[in-house]
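Researcher: Let's run the pair from yesterday's discussion. Sequence first, then tokens, for each.
Model: Starting with the first of the pair.
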Amino acid sequence: MSERTLRFLDLASAALLLLWAGMGLGIAVIAAPVAFHQLPSRELAGRVIGGSFRVVDLAAWFAFGLPILMSYGSRWLSEIKDTVEGIGPMRLWNAAALAALLICFTSAAIVNPKMESIRTRIGVPLESLPQDHPDRMAFGRAHRISEQMLGLRLLLALGLAAGIAYLPKAKAPEA
């Protein structure tokens, strides 16, 4: 694979990661505060923003999975080796991308279903429950974990997009 092709795949990977990070930040920083301020109830706002984040969670699989295929996979197919002894840029980059995918799996398979099951089980708006109600507290914990996982994925997306510049661009000379 030529260096020009690698550079193109790297730019496409960085664009996907930055696009996803922009979507996540846009919803978290702009749409969520507006929805919670403008919509008639926190329950409705939570459902709207929750639905938006489900789309962002789905897009995260592509935003982190495709760059692994394009940036790391293309180097693997071209047999470009990490010339650094120990943990080099390729291994570190790949580990960070796999960590982001693991967070995507945790969010999709554990945290989001837990939040939905709590909402379904109580059958009333969360704000109608007292602050010390076990279901409201459990939902709050799951929501905080969801926020933390989004923050970690945003940081990983930005770090991976920046880290693409440090990936090797050509085959290492054979010794």
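Model: Moving on to the second of the pair.
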Amino acid sequence: MATDVERLQANLKHWALLLGVLQITIGCMVGFIPPSAVQWFRGIVMAHIEFTANGVLMVVLGLLVSQLRLGPTAFKAWFATLQIGTWSNGAAGLAAAFTGSSSQLMPTLNEKFPPPHGVDSPLVTGLLQLCGVTILIALMLTLYGLLRSRPE
């Protein structure tokens, strides 16, 4: 009989894999948005790359769930931060594309492809900051769970 943690692991693995593949699919679909449909096409390119790359990250981390030794609360925090972080990264690109505004957190992109409405979007900046913090937390929880599971 599976323990509560084992059931939770199985559920989180299922959802991480499903949502990871969904995110990759959405990333590919975003790539079909034509330049004329948005104010800043580089935002679409960014969203396409970030959704697909972060979807792959989610699938890989989902495959590691059975190797992680975390308690129920830590597993839930891991899953929540993984979801928030990976989805907010691509969402920042979509927000930039449709608003035509970028963030100062992307200086190289802004220099090469200046957005028409500037680089001071609080929405894009906030999504990027949220992404950075939450993905880092998810990765740290993954490392912690892997370190705790090492064979003696």
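Researcher: Give me one sentence on the second I can quote.
Model: The chain is about 75% helix and 0% strand.
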